[in-house]
Amino acid sequence: MKIASISLNPFWQDKKSSFDLCHKYIKQASKKSVDLIIFPEMTLTGFSNNVKLLAEEKDNSSSILKFSKLSKKFKIAIVFGVVIKIKSKIYNQCVFINKEGKILGDYSKIHSFSYAQEDKYFASGKKISIISFNDFKIGLSICYDLRFPELYSALAKKSDIIINIASWPKKRINHWRTLLKARAIENQLYVIGVNRTGIDGNKLKYNESSLFYNALGKKIKSENFSKMKIYTLLKKDILEYENNFNAKKDRKIELYKTII
After folding, report:
1. Where in the chain are the domains?
2. Are 82 and 56 spatial neighbours (Cβ–Cβ below 8 Å)?
3. CA of residue 259 relative to chain centroid, distance
4. What is the domain class of 2-259 according to CATH?
5. Each residue's pLDDT tens digit, 193-232
6. What's the pLDDT score for residue 13?
7. From CA 220, how far away is CA 210, in angstroms rounded?
8. Coil/strand/helix, residue 54
9. Strand ranges (DSSP E) for 56-126?
10. Which residues contact 133 (CB under 8 A, 6 or more apart)?
11. Residues with a known catalytic role
12. Which terminus of the chain, N or C, has fewer Cβ atoms within 10 Å?
């Protein structure tokens, strides 16, 4: 399977301009026979608590509709971030659309970033999300979730890959790199982190830091095209490592529940 990560520099709270930019990358990725393209958190707006401006009704989301049309047109699956309103609650979501333009699943961010007051504007998700795609099981997570290994342990029970879409600022980027690597090693699977670049409307800086680690904690080599990186994954690589050194089977889940 070929996966493309896009280190997008979105236009601040400007969905149309940001979508046009995404369109360009999706078209480019399709020419490289990419199966799945992944964009950062709050793809079309940048990370913002301005929910009145950004939120879209779940059943009438223009962003989801537009990405669905592109996935169908270019025969490519798309993962992206969007602010969604369900009834009276607002969620920071990650959406997975397949090559036919259908939603395979979505994930509402469980761990709100209280340091940036995200918890005051967004409701926390209540369930994990694992998607079946191209013979892989893919777990979804968003930015700050990366700091909570318990979530990744839960996802790892049935996942081959865990995706994290993020708006992780430059000043804490060493944590980002270290935690992505740690989550891959401890769970013996692929972990891909797709982070934005540029400067947002709050003057926070983001540098090129999208990364993909294998079960050994080694960076996976990529073909690089400006802000797009393309990776090729083989299911047998994960199975081979698990068969040779499967540490996950030695976890004491029931004991952990009594401690945490």
Report:
1. 2-259
2. yes
3. 30
4. alpha beta
5. 999 999 999 999 999 999 999 999 999 999 999 899 999 9
6. 98
7. 11
8. helix
9. 56-57, 77-86, 89-97, 103-108
10. 36, 77, 96, 98, 104
11. 41, 109, 143
12. C
